[in-house]
Each structure stands twice: as structure tokens, then as C-alpha cells.
Amino acid sequence: MKRIVILISGRGSNMQAVLEANLPVKVAAVISNKADAPGLETARRHGVETVVVDHRGHDGREAFDAALARQIDSHAPDLVVLAGFMRILTPGFVEHYAGRLINIHPSLLPAFTGLDTHARALAEGVKLHGCTVHFVTNELDRGPIVAQAAVPVLADDTPETLAARVLAQEHRLYPQAIRWFAEDKLALTSDGKVRFLGPCDADSVLISPREKP
Ligand code: GAR
After folding, report:
1. What's the CATH number of domain 1-97, 3.40.1260.10, 3.60.110.10, 3.40.50.170, 3.10.20.90?
2. Does residue 23 carry a pLDDT above 70?
3. Which of 122, 173, 189, 191 has the fewest CB atoms inside 10 Å of its own CB, making it the most exposed?
4. Do the two domains 1-97 and 106-213 of this chain adopt the same fold?
């Protein structure tokens, strides 16, 4: 069974969705860069080992990422899962985990990389918004796309209501993507795309219907 390590910084609802999805993986540890991340308690309740690597205790990004990598590697994961881990990672770190580091981002990438994606989507007046699971590369919020879920943007949406609708899809999409990894159904092509080994293409796009008022 494949081993995964999940990195969080806060609430950890995506982590929780992964823990509760009965995936064919061993969650070896949950690591947070913040000691007060509420997700740590959720992980403990699920019987998962938790570790804190506080970024403030390190002299710069390189030192923090080296300490983080030491902790991760002590659990020998096949896959490292970023679940609301709000740190920019150094090129050396990303290189070390090439092909085995994935992230979920709350937008339909490549639109709205970075922060405040829901408010920015509303400000642009887009009609579709959503979330993306992708392998991590050295470009912020870019990298081979595994799956995307789209939600309609409604006329009376606020950043909060839109975020909630997207988050519900994140909780479906991320466990599905990790299941594919665990089942060896994901391959990376030389031109930086994800190829599915098996019939998952249809499930890599989720479109949530517009709810009737
Ligand atoms: C999620 O919406 C996730 O997509 C986002 O942070 C939230 C974490 O929530 N991640 C990013 O913005 C990364 N660029 P959670 O802690 O409840 O999973």
C-alpha cells in the first residue's frame, strides 16, 4: 500500500476529506508549519501521527524546507499531499519531490493563481469557477493538471458563498486524484501533462450543476 504524507497550515478540511475517503493508502503523517492549525487535532482524532515544523524557527526558506524534507522523508512517503499548505516551496524541495508532490488550488488553473481566488473571480465576473489538483512544479500554482471541478458563479455570490461551493468540490476531487495515484493510474508525459493509465478521463472533470433557486 502506498504511503502519503499530508502537509497543512490551517483548517485541514481537505486533509479530513482524504482521511475519511477510505483510500487504499497509509497516511503516514500530517505535518503542519503552524502549531495551532485546527487540522492537527482532526488528524489526531483519526489516529494519524502529527508533526509541527514551525517555519518561524528556521533561518530562511532553505533551512525550513530542509527541516521539512527531513521530517517528510523519515516517513518514506510515495506521495506528498499539499492540503492548504500556505508556504512557497524552494526549487530544491520541489525538485526532490518531482512527480510525487501534489496540490489543490481553489481556481480553475491557470486562471487565478495565488491568493484570494474567489474574490478575484467575482471581480472578473467569470461564470465558472472551481478547483484544480495538479502536480507541483517550480512555477507557483502551475504544473501538470490531474483533475478539475467547475462550479457556476451565481449572481448573488459573495467570496464566502462561492468558496463554500468550491470547497465542497475540493472534497470530492482531491480524494479521487489521490486514489488514482495510489492505483498507479497517473503518468507524467515528457511535455508536462498528466496521462491516465486506465479509464479515468471522464472523472477528471467534475461539473457541479447550477442549483435551482
Ligand atoms: C483550500 O480551499 C485549498 O484549496 C486552498 O486553501 C484551502 C485550505 O482549506 N489552498 C490554496 O489556496 C493553495 N494555494 P483546508 O485547510 O480546509 O483544506
Report:
1. 3.40.50.170
2. yes
3. 191
4. yes
Atom 14 in ligand 1: residue holding the nearest Cα: 105
Ligand 1 lined by 175 (C-beta under 6 Å): no
Chain CA centroid to CA 37, Å: 16
Dist. CA 197–CA 1, nearest whole Å = 18
Please check whether residue 99 is in contact with residue 136, taking contact to mean a CB–CB distance below 8 angstroms: no
| Residue nearest atom 3 of ligand 1, based on CA coordinates | 84
Write down the CATH number for the domain with range 106-213.
3.40.50.170
Domain boundaries, given as residue ranges, for the chain: 1-97, 106-213
For residue 67, give the nearest of 49, 77, 54, 80 by alpha carbon: 54
Of 46, 55, 58, 105, the catalytic one is 105
Pocket test for ligand 1, best of 170, 172, 173 (most atoms within 8 A of CB): 170
